[in-house]
Amino acid sequence: MTVMEQRGAYRPAPPPAWQARTDPAPLLPDAAPYRVLGTDAASEVAPELLLRLHAELVRGRRYNTQATALTKQGRLAVYPSSTGQEACEIAAALALQERDWLFPSYRDTLAAVARGLDPVRALTLLRGDWHTGYDPREYRMAPLCTPLATQLPHAVGLAHAARLKGDDVVALAMIGDGGTSEGDFHEALNFAAVWQAPAVFLVQNNGFAISVPLAKQTAAPSLAHKAVGYGMPGRLVDGNDAVAVLEVLGEAVRRAREGGGPTLVEAVTYRMDAHTNADDATRYRPDEEVEAWRDHDPVLLVERELTARGLLDEEHSRAVREDAEAMAADLRERMNQDPVLDPMDLFTHVYAEQTTQLREQAAQLRAELEAEAETDGADR
Amino acid sequence: MTTVAVKPATMGQALGRALRDALAEDPTVHVMGEDVGTLGGVFRVTDGLAAEFGDDRCTDTPLAEAGILGTAVGMAMYGLRPVVEMQFDAFAYPAFEQLMSHVARMRNRTRGALPMPITVRVPYGGGIGGVEHHSDSSEAYYMATPGLHVVTPATVADAYGLLRASIASDDPVVFLEPKRLYWSKAEWNPDAPQPVEPLGKAVVRRAGRSATLITYGPSVPVCLEAAEAARAEGWDLEVVDLRSLVPFDDETVAASVRRTGRAVVVHEATGFGGPGGEIAARITERCFHHLEAPVLRVAGFDIPYPPPMLERHHLPGVDRILDAVARLQWEAGS
């Protein structure tokens, strides 16, 4: 008998009362992304919500174009645009209460702004005057996170800590499709499910991790399906449909708040711009693909619904446009001012108390700065 | 006046006591890691903590080091004070990204808004007959990361005092526990534990006049043994136990070397790119005119940690230390 035959002949007895630990059926995502706009359900959406979302989306789009323009003027070191993804950015911010926490990635400055952060402070990291421009406790918003997926376990830990303290707080973490391949994505979802942490994971599947398409990233039926393996529900939603994203995130947040545990949400969207201003998207995707998505633009989807219901009057349009332009003008003006930097800050927040070695190095830099100032003075 | 019984205790027991006292005194302290709950840790350091404080305060986590440290970051952001156990030195590597990219620099990234009062306990070093991936000395990696404190005890009393100080620190501390000293015993009174000393202070374990052995953690007892043996050769060796690699106590080290004029740095970690190079450079920068000989290093060879049946050839031992002392140019200096 060959080895393979022996293997074939081997029939281990199953444990007597084996059963799945969780029924997987209720955890499975829908067969297609959930949509509201463009469906019959859209007529049920309150006009106020549609108008509010429209204003936020237009403002968000303007923020993206203004920030991209600032890179061309040398005012931002880099800008990873969320153009085309504004529905996810806005919905993530609106789905949370003030006491909840948001864990954005580097592409989510718009979500930070939509949460109420000053647009200039949201861009501190990308301008490069410091790593984070705000006090995370003030906005209950973690620093914009560059190493992929590493902020997800933070969200789980914070949600867990809040629950231990008996606080009614939900953490929502944002990530892209590429980030779901990272180990921290897996570990965060597993911890969240095991601990039943009040956490929500929003994956913006925008089709690309810089240049690598989703097909080279995963063989999963959908990213939302990954949830089932962790024992949490996965939801699939049209990421350009702001009403649908807000509804799905709202349900997930409510579920987490009520002690129902975490949810994974995959929002199917498209990154209309290149990865950043430093990237060239024509090297890896045809223009026709991008063009096809223009008809499914998040701003357009809301405008179609507003128009169909006769809600998009000139007064509203002008007010929305003016608000967006005012935000852009203010951002432009303030970003065109050089930030005031103190090089001595480099040593201030390394430790609670400076070490002897850092005090020595700080003294060295101070002496260099003084010498520099003297030379500059003598030159004048 | 009541007399308290001073009984022999192991380093493992002192560490466990430090965790227990920290949990009892500060409700924000949370112990977490693999097998730290029901089992009490593979080295039994956390024995009894889950029973006493419940599994919300002493938590068996899923088996994922990045997840353990990553969730600890989130807990610290919410005001808790996590004490994380990495089961073995080489099993801490999956948590490196969290440690380097977040734990070490969150305070800096946020201009002080989010301090990371996290203690990462890592059993480290060899000499226990462990198979591969169970005996690494990874301190140089941690030392090279600004924002971390790197602390390691060599005595039972220090195990308690330094761990309490580490947990109390508002900065992240990589707390390296010398595995082979877990079972080392000393007279120690658990009912009157030593006051918690500030981190960053080295201590002279043995005063001497001929030369200074600078060491830490598992090599401290080896150096003390070498110093005793050296008496037969006529050398009176001073032994400095660094206790804290970061911050580094330049003052105590330099003062000792200026007194003795000769120095040997001893550690298990590999020599090339290891802590000894940094320490030797710091001594030379500060004590050049007091030195009678080049600062020498006795370190692990520059090899992956050997299999247990060969590890004795790798670990710095008394003979290798004495050989180094013998090479300190005695004929020229005296």
UniProtKB/TrEMBL annotation, chain A:
Matches recorded under Pfam families: E1_dh
UniProt xrefs under Gene3D superfamilies: 3.40.50.970
GO biological process: branched-chain amino acid catabolic process
Alphabetized UniProt keyword annotations: Oxidoreductase, Pyruvate, Thiamine pyrophosphate
Gene Ontology terms, MF aspect: magnesium ion binding; oxidoreductase activity, acting on the aldehyde or oxo group of donors, disulfide as acceptor
Classification via InterPro entries: Alpha-ketoacid_DH_E1_comp, DH_E1, PdhA/BkdA, THDP-binding
Cofactor: thiamine diphosphate
Region (Disordered): 1-24
SUPFAM superfamilies recorded: Thiamin diphosphate-binding fold (THDP-binding) (SSF52518)
Domain Dehydrogenase E1 component residues, every copy: 67-342
Domain of life, source organism: Bacteria
Record protein name field: Pyruvate dehydrogenase E1 component subunit alpha
Species in which this protein is naturally found: Streptomyces longispororuber
Lineage: Bacteria, Bacillati, Actinomycetota, Actinomycetes, Kitasatosporales
From TrEMBL, chain B:
Pfam families assigned: Transket_pyr (PF02779), Transketolase_C (PF02780)
Enzyme class: oxidoreductase
Residue ranges constituting the Transketolase-like pyrimidine-binding domain according to the UniProt record: 9-184
GO biological process annotation, one example: response to nutrient
GO molecular function: branched-chain 2-oxo acid dehydrogenase activity; magnesium ion binding
InterPro entries named in the record: THDP-binding, Transketo_C/PFOR_II, Transketolase-like_Pyr-bd, Transketolase_C
Taxonomic superkingdom: Bacteria
Residue ranges of coiled coil: none
Keywords assigned by UniProt, alphabetized: Oxidoreductase
Cofactor: thiamine diphosphate
EC number: 1.2.4.4
This protein's name: 3-methyl-2-oxobutanoate dehydrogenase (2-methylpropanoyl-transferring)
Originating species: Streptomyces longispororuber
